[in-house]
Amino acid sequence: MHFRDTYSDEYEMYEEMFDPVKNDRQARRSRRSRIHPASKERAEIVAELTDEIETELDGGFRITYQPSKYEATWLLQSLLPFYGQTLITDVLALIKGGKEASVYRCRAHPSTGLDLVAAKVYRPRKFRSLSNDAVYRDGRTVLNENGKEIKATDERVMRAFRQRTGFGLRVAHTSWVMHEYTTIEKLHEQGGAVPQPILSAENAILMSYHGDENVAAPTLHEIDLERDEAERLFDEVMRNIEMLLALGWVHGDLSAYNILYWEGEIVLIDFPQVVNCHGNDHARAILERDVARVCDYFAHQGVNRSPGKIAGRLWKRYAEIPLRDRLADASVDFPPDED
């Protein structure tokens, strides 16, 4: 295994190996004896992460979930900020593995007032190789680790970002994470049906958990609804699409696969691909795709609506009028579609 020259790139050692959903037999065949002999300090760090803290952190903290060796390194290092700020006390289970990130059920620290929380841990290489990611980034600002816009006048950072250097890729990754976190934060403040954001870190976000001790909330595509409930939840999805548009954004990947269902309520998730509806030439097409996917699911639940009419009406209302009027109109109830 070849190590990069700077310790700041330690995550990249594991990107090809880390996949918590797959069988970890291949990872187990990798041995620490392959570490570059000239990298003693880094080798010691890796040994600590992969062996000594695979299930235990400093101070004797132990986690219930049993990750594979390389997943442990990635997982625990990503979650260290949440441990350090006494927001979580245990990692209980993997609840969702995906191409861009995995989500874990965690035990919350009593000081949070919560019992369980969800930690979403991102996979940088998958972010960097996301198909057509430029389509989503078009018109978006670049955000730093605090969720603040990096100004165009910061030539060093913006040049690295444009040239996709190692540093530039880290900047892009941070911006990707923070776009999701800040979008959830803004929607939650507006009363949106989204997880409650708790804290963001370099490679993870902590948010409210939906489900119970044994099972996480399923996604909507796994649920068959009664007609009355389907109509109510369809209106709620559209209310959230409208709320997001009022803030100037399109979800970018919305479907029944990205909507949780729990005890009769829904929660929209997965916002890293949010699209600027005023600075992205593809925004209207992406909105139309989001609405069509939602309508397709609800059509199977007996709620037949015209996605083209809905998307057109929403686009006209929020993308073709001044910002102050959009925000003033944000509280307007979503009207029923005409059959």
How would you describe this protein?
By secondary structure, this protein is α+β, with helices and mostly antiparallel strands. The protein has 2 domains: 7-208, Phosphorylase Kinase, domain 1; 220-328, Transferase(Phosphotransferase), domain 1. 39% of the residues lie in helices and 15% in strands. The chain is built from 11 helices and 11 strands. The protein has helices at 25-29, 40-52, 69-84, 124-128, 133-137, 155-163, 166-189, 227-246, 283-299, 307-319, 323-328; strands spanning 56-57, 61-62, 88-97, 101-108, 116-122, 197-200, 204-208, 249-250, 259-262, 265-268, 275-276. The strands form 4 sheets. Strands 3-4-5-7-6 form a 5-stranded antiparallel β-sheet, with helices on both faces. It has a two-stranded antiparallel sheet with strand order 1-2. It has a two-stranded antiparallel sheet with strand order 8-11. Helix 8 packs antiparallel against helix 9 (283-299). The longest helix has 24 residues, at 166-189. The protein is globular, with a radius of gyration of 21 Å. Residues 1-19 and 21-55 have low confidence and may be disordered.
Poorly predicted runs of 5 or more residues: 1-19, 21-55
Distance between the termini: 61 Å
The largest sheet, given as strand count, sense and whether it forms a barrel, is: 5 strands, antiparallel
Instruction: Specify the number of helices.
Output: 11
**CATH classification, class level of the largest domain:** Alpha Beta
Mean pLDDT across every amino acid position: 80
Domain count, please report it: 2
Spatial strand arrangement across the major sheet: 3-4-5-7-6
- The CATH homologous superfamily of the largest domain is termed Phosphorylase Kinase, domain 1
Helix content bin = 25-40%
CATH fold annotation of the largest domain: Phosphorylase Kinase, domain 1
Proportion of beta-strand residues: 5-15%
Radius of gyration: 21 Å
CATH architecture descriptor name of the largest domain = 2-Layer Sandwich
Please identify the structural class as seen in this structure.
alpha+beta
